[in-house]
Amino acid sequence: MKKQYVNLNPSQLLILIFTLCIISGTILLRLPIATTNSITWVDSFFTATSAMTVTGLIVVDTPVAFTVFGEVVIAILIQLGGLGIMSFAVMIYIMLGRRIGIKERLVIKQALNQTSIGGIIKLVRNLFFFSLTVELIAMLFLSIKWIPDLGWIKGLYYSFFHAISAFNNAGFSLWSDSLMGYVGDPITNIIISGLFIIGGIGFTVLSDLWHKKKFRKLSLHSKLMIVATFAINITAMFIIFVLEYNNYNTLGSLSTLSDKLWASYFQAVTPRTAGFNTLDIGSLEEPTLFFMLILMFIGAGSGSTGGGIKLTTFIIIVLAVLTFLKGKREITIAERTISQTYILRSLAIASMGMFFIFTAIFILSITEKAPFLNVLFEVISAFGTVGLSMGLTAELSIIGKIIITLIMFIGKLGPLTLAFSLASSKDKKIKYPQEEILTG
Amino acid sequence: MKKQYVNLNPSQLLILIFTLCIISGTILLRLPIATTNSITWVDSFFTATSAMTVTGLIVVDTPVAFTVFGEVVIAILIQLGGLGIMSFAVMIYIMLGRRIGIKERLVIKQALNQTSIGGIIKLVRNLFFFSLTVELIAMLFLSIKWIPDLGWIKGLYYSFFHAISAFNNAGFSLWSDSLMGYVGDPITNIIISGLFIIGGIGFTVLSDLWHKKKFRKLSLHSKLMIVATFAINITAMFIIFVLEYNNYNTLGSLSTLSDKLWASYFQAVTPRTAGFNTLDIGSLEEPTLFFMLILMFIGAGSGSTGGGIKLTTFIIIVLAVLTFLKGKREITIAERTISQTYILRSLAIASMGMFFIFTAIFILSITEKAPFLNVLFEVISAFGTVGLSMGLTAELSIIGKIIITLIMFIGKLGPLTLAFSLASSKDKKIKYPQEEILTG
Ligand SMILES: [K+]
Ligand SMILES: [K+]
C-alpha cells in the first residue's frame, strides 16, 4: 500500500491550516449564539486571528461580548493555534538535525516520517497529550483559588479557560481587567506565570530537561534558553519595581511590599509573550513601556507557544556583534561554534520583523488618531503576539484593525517559516570577484 | 633623519583630536566675548559638541545667544569636525585597500605614509583645499541672493557661515527659524542642498566621478551610493509631498505649487543628515516624522561629512536579508560578491547604533517630561548627527543635555571607528564543533 504524502511544504501547510482555522473561527464567532450583541465581521475576524495566533489583543471585551459558546470557540482556537505552532516548530527543529538525545530521536524518527500525514499526526498527538496534562494540572491548582471565589461551575470554567489561555501564551481572559483582581495572589501568579513560562520556553528544552536531568549535559540551545530566561526576567522585574514604585496608578497603589513584588514579577515575565496583566498597562511610566517594547520584540523561546523574534535569535545577534568587536571571526560559546548561516538567519528574522513593524506603524500613524507610543506599543504587541495594549485596540479604525490582524498573522508565522527556510545552496557556479564596500 | 610616528592608532587619534577641539570650543564659547548673555558650561559644552560633530542641535538660539566671535568659533569647529571626519574616513578607505583609480592611489600613497604625521597633514591639506573650493563657489552663489536681501557685509557673512555649515552637514543657521524664510527660493534650495549632498555623498565617490567620468566605469561603492541617493531622495520627496499637502502648518500654508515642491524636496534631502529645515519640524504629521526617523538613522555616505549608520551599511543589511530569503549563500550585486566580513560589520554598526539609541531613549524617558515621539526624534537626530528637532533640545534637563551630547559624540565617531576595526584574525587554534541553535 502506498503511503499518502501532503503535496505542500510544511510552511505552506502551516499557513493553510492557520488560514482555514481563522476563517472557521470568524464564522463561528459571528453566529448569534456566540455573542451577546451581534459584532461586525471585522471584529470577529480580528478576534479569531487574535485567538488562533495566541496574541490576546481584543477589540471587544471577551466576557461582555461573547457567550459561553463564543468563549469556548476562542479557547479551541487558542489550543489549535498553540498546538499548531509548537508542532511545526518541533518538526523544524528535528528536520534541522538538532540532537535531542538518541532515545528521543529514535522515537521521533519513528513518529515523523518527513511530512507524511501519519508522522505529523503522531507528533501532534504527543504534543497534545503533553499540553493537556500540563493544562489539567494547572487547572486543578487554579480551582483551589477560584472555586471558593466564584463557586463550583464558574470556578472550574474559569480555571479551564485561563489554563488553556496561559499555557498557550494567549493572554485572553474572562475578566475585563485581565488578572488585575489577583495582583497579589500567590497561587494565580505562580500558576499562570508557570504555565506561560513552560509554554514559552519551548518543547525541545523541556524534553531535553526531562531526558538529561543535569544542566551540564543539556544542549547548548537549552542552556542558553534557561540562563537567558532567568537573567532577562530578573532584570525586568528589578527595572519595573524601581520605575513603578512611586507611580500611584500602578505599584504605588498597592499597599504591601509583597503585592508590589508579585506585580513587578508578573509584569516582568508577561511581555515575552503571555499578554496577561495585573497592572494597568496604559498607566505605566514611559520608560517601563519602552522597556516592555524591547521585551515584546524579543519574545519567547523557539519551538514554544510564544512569539517575537525569539530569545535565541536575539542572543545570536548580540553574540555576533560582540564577536566582531573582539576582532574574532567565529562565534563561540560554551566551547561550541555557531555557524554563519544562523547569523544570517537571525539577521533576516530581526530585519524582516522590523520591516513589517515599521510599515505597520507608518500606516497606523496615518489612519489612527493616537499618541505615537500607543501605536508603537500596539504594533509590537501584535508582532510579538503578546496582547498587551495601552488601550488603542478597542479604538482602532477598520484599516487599523486589518493591519493589526495582518501583523499578528505575520508575527506568528513569519519568524517560523523564515527559520524553516534553510539557506539551501542555489548559488550560481560563477564566482564573482569579491569587492569591498565601505560601511559606517 | 628618523620619521616621527604618532603613537596612537588612528581611531584613538581621532577621538583625542575631537575631545581636545570640543574642550577648546567649550572654553571659547564660554568667554564673555562669545555671547550676548553669559551661557552655562553645559550649554557651551553642548554647543561645542554639536558644532564639532556637525550635528546642529541647539540649546540656545545661535544668532541671539552668540556674538560674531562666538559664531566664528562655531564655524571653525564645524570646519574642523567635517574635515576631521572626512580625512579619517578617507584614510580608512585607503587602508582597507579600496581601489579608487591607479592615478589617485599613487597620489594618496605618496601623501599618506600609514599614520605618519606628514602623511596625515598632506591628506588633510588636500581635503581642506577641496572643501574650501566648494565652499567658496557656493558662497558666491549664495551672495547673489543674500547681498541684495541683507546688504554687503551681512550678506557675505551669512553666505560664508551657511556655506561652511551646509557643506559639512552641520545644520547650524544664523536665522532663528533656520531657512524657513527661503522655503521657495530656488538659489537657496539648490545651493544649500547641493552643498550638503556633495558633502554627504563621500569624498571617494566624488574622486571616483572626477577620474572615471563614466557611470559604467565607477566602483561598486560609487554606483551604489549614487543610485541609492537618487532613489531615496525621490521617494522621500514624494512621501512628504503627499503626507503634508493638506497640513496647514507646513505645505498647506504655502501658496504656490512651486513652493510646495521646493519644500518637499528640501525636507526630503535634509534628514540624511544636513539638519536644515524650511518647514517647522514640530508641525509635521506623525507619519512624516516617523519616516524621517528612519532616514536619520540611515544617514549619508561613508567618507562624508554626514552621519548615521551610512547608506551602504543599510544597503548591505537589506541585501544580506534578500540573499538569505532567496536561499543563496553569497551576496552578489552588479557581478560583484560582498564579503561576509562586511555583513558582520554592518550588523555590528547597526546593532551598536540601536543599543546606544535605546539606552539614551530609556534614560531620557525617565528624565524628560516630553511626548515619546519627541524623545525618539531627538535621540535619533543626535545619533545621526542630523540636528533636526521637534523642539525638545531647548527644554532638555541637564542630564538630558549630557546624554544628547554623548550620543552626538558616539554617533559621529562610533560607526567610523567600528568600520575601522577590521575583524582581524585572532581566532583560537582550537576549532570547536559546530552546533545548531534554533532561531525564529
Ligand atoms: K499572547
Ligand atoms: K547635521
From TrEMBL, chains A, B:
A cellular-component GO term for this protein: plasma membrane
Main location per the UniProt record: membrane
GO MF terms held by the record: potassium:chloride symporter activity
This protein's record includes keyword Ribonucleoprotein: no
UniProt keyword annotations, A-Z: Cell membrane, Ion transport, Membrane, Potassium, Potassium transport, Transmembrane, Transmembrane helix, Transport
Pfam families cross-referenced by the UniProt entry: TrkH (PF02386)
Membrane topology value: Multi-pass membrane protein
Domain of life of the native organism: Bacteria
Transmembrane domains' residue ranges: 12-33, 39-60, 72-96, 127-144, 156-175, 187-210, 222-243, 289-322, 342-366, 402-423
Record's protein name: Trk system potassium uptake protein TrkH
